[in-house]
Amino acid sequence: MIRNKFVGFAIAALLLGLAAYAIYSLFEIQPYTRTVPPSREARINEYLALDRWLEGQGVAFRIESSANIYLISQARERRIFLQSTLFRWTDYSAEYFVKWIEAGGTLFLVLDYSQMWIQDEPLSLLEKFGIKAEIESRRRVYDSEYPTYDSRVFFTLDDEAATVLTDRSGRIRFVQKTEGNGKLIVSGSPHFLLSRELDNDANARLALSLFSENEDWLFIRGASRVQGLLGSLFRQGNFTVLLVSVLVLIFIGFWAVIPGFGLVKGYEEKPGKALRERFLAEGTFLRKHNSLELYGEVYMKEIMRKLSHKEGLNEEEIQKRICEILGRPIEAPTTPLAARNFTNTINDYQTILERI
């Protein structure tokens, strides 16, 4: 027995070894690259990597989708990232921010290219600091040695008392100026802070220089909207055509499902045969095939069930009890001749059921 087990084990080990050698020699493991799309959170929040980095550095911050002077005046944070199009500018906003910065606040003002020719208030704020913002129609060119600036917005300064960053062509794309106890930071759309751009060393260095100090920040910035099917249709298609098509489909659907108004054309339901006729037809069929005993069997099963449950009788005692009730034995119609007494036999069964 032990020898047989050893032989079986050796054979199994040999087969496994041959299989492993075949797999090793015939197959090759190759790396497989699978593209994983960004999560919904990352698509909504373009600054998700920056937020997680700030959390890891222990920098407290909160985010608002819009703001006004009252929110700024009530904020406990002394460092504010402000997207210009999300702020409700008034005639005295520029004066308020000048005093707020001189009192020790830090304002990072982001100028949106799409709204610069509409909003004059943020431009007037920059002029109070000797900064002028200008627009140029230029497509952004990727340059790994420089931060990813907004190539459509550049600045000029009245004096040189400011820290500036330029692109390869010498255009000023980023300005930081100290005023009183605070400072003003201004740039175009901060592409260098977006999640998809922070893996660039130049962008990472600039972000580190802005948020390295462990002080609270208030971000007033917008969130990207994830485009669904309807959003894509509204953006690229004709809304009027879509609306008309939907209404036509709804009308056709109701037309096909809902019947026309008026009386519904029906049909007369033919009445079924009477119970007596159906019983007679069934009895005639059973008599033709010499099977009238089926009725007797049904009655007999019910009689035996009742006597067994009510009086606790066995089969032999049940037969005696039936004889006591009728005063004679009962015979089921099991032959063609018994069909003549079929009615009498059924009546006997019914009499027994009534008396037990």
Protein described:
Helix 5 runs parallel beside helix 6 (121-128). By secondary structure, the protein is an alpha/beta fold. It has 2 domains: 40-220, Rossmann fold (3-Layer(aba) Sandwich), CATH 3.40.50; 275-355, no CATH class. Strand 6 (163-166) and strand 7 form a beta hairpin. The protein has helices spanning 2-26, 40-44, 48-56, 69-74, 93-102, 121-128, 201-211, 229-236, 239-257, 275-288, 293-310, 315-326, 342-355; strands at 61-64, 79-83, 106-110, 131-135, 153-157, 163-166, 172-179, 182-187, 217-220. The protein is built from 13 helices and 9 strands.
Observed structural traits:
alpha/beta; 2 domains; Rossmann fold; elongated; 356 residues
CATH class categorisation of the largest domain: Alpha Beta
Kindly give the count of domains. Answer: 2
**E-strand count:** 9
* Structural class estimated from helices and strands: alpha/beta
In CATH, the topology of the largest domain is named Rossmann fold
Strand order of the largest sheet: 1-9-2-3-8-7-6
- Gap between N and C termini: 72 Å
The whole-number mean of residue pLDDT values reads: 80
Please state the CA-atom Rg, rounded to the nearest Å: 47 Å
Portion in helices: 40-55%
Shape: elongated
- The proportion of residues in beta strands is 5-15%
Question: Helical segment tally?
Answer: 13
Low-confidence stretches: none
Main pleated-sheet profile: 7 strands, mixed
Spell the H/E element sequence. Answer: HHHEHEHEHEEEEEHEHHHHHH
CATH architecture of the largest domain: 3-Layer(aba) Sandwich
